[in-house]
């Protein structure tokens, strides 16, 4: 008899709508899921229309006649440009609905030197800090927000920018607040060495400076956040000075020489550290091209690693007596950046790190499974 009752209950359960079987949906999370879907929908339309290529082709590189953006920016096809299968979400809810009604969206970013100071000395200049402020990443974001506003027939969606200080606790910025210590002389929001502790001050999304395969606050970004399609990607290249005693013609050659010291910048530091764990990796945070040229010239590094197949001549960025470089070595590694949104069931906390920093500067995030 008991077996019959159990079988009958199981049969009735199968007939119930799925909503009656599962727990109450995450109503807050629905808005963030819709944000991702809306960004993806706008993005595939930009690619489909050809506007993406026009933005890249219209970029004014920080130094002319070095390398064209269309030669180093790669489009990953993790989202094929098919609008028919990438619709805008219906009935906006939660945070997405508030963004549409308020006409404002909060963007987390990391400040850099203005174009007329950096002038091609940083790898990031070749994506978002070109001549006269030409900016591929900003142009793509503006177009995405324009298309979203047009679809939902709202007014212009304005970007409210929130600067994220060192050590760039970007997952925390999405989840629970802005924390860190400003070490950036070009900060637009903080004094030098200012301790920032702003619980509850969050951003809606992180702009394109966190690669999809990386980690933040000891948690894989793909586990701790929601991500859009990959927007901008680029290869990773090894630059060996002429006259180097090392013979490096592939990624395997570099891995086989753990005594080679690698100099790199913010955009490639995690890639270099993880792909070449036996090598010493020196990270230059401000003007990585210029500073790595100087490090190699002064005997403090052996090769330069970044996402440009060709870098500007040393003299063009104020470095003299630096070596010339052989044709770059393509590692066959591609790193790409999406837009990042708040993740589900993630908790971040301050951790104590020995040194001169105040408690709270460094954070650690973890995924709370089962929620």
> Distance between the terminal alpha carbons, to the nearest Å?
36 Å
Low-confidence region ranges: 1-25
How many domains comprise the coordinates? Answer: 2
Mean pLDDT: 92
Q: What proportion of the residues form beta strands (DSSP E)? A: 15-25%
Largest sheet: 6 strands, mixed
**What helical percentage do the residues reach?**
25-40%
The outline comes out as globular
The secondary structure category is alpha/beta
Q: Work out the radius of gyration.
A: 23 Å
Number of strands: 17
Total number of helical segments?
Answer: 14
What does this structure look like?
The protein is an alpha/beta fold and 371 residues long. The chain has two domains: 27-231 and 338-367, no CATH class; 235-334, Periplasmic binding protein-like II (D-Maltodextrin-Binding Protein, domain 2), CATH 3.40.190. 32% of the residues lie in helices and 20% in strands. It contains 14 helices and 17 strands. The protein has helices spanning 2-15, 18-21, 27-49, 51-57, 69-72, 94-102, 115-118, 125-128, 136-152, 170-175, 221-224, 251-255, 269-275, 288-297, and strands spanning 73-74, 104-109, 158-163, 177-181, 195-199, 205-206, 215-216, 219-220, 225-227, 232-239, 262-265, 281-284, 303-306, 329-337, 340-342, 346-350, 363-367. The strands form five sheets. Strands 1, 10, 11, 12, 13 and 14 form a six-stranded mixed β-sheet that branches. A five-stranded mixed β-sheet has the order 3-2-6-15-9. A two-stranded antiparallel ribbon has the order 4-5. The longest helix is centred in the N-terminal third of the chain and has 23 residues, at 27-49. The model is unreliable at 1-25 (pLDDT under 50).
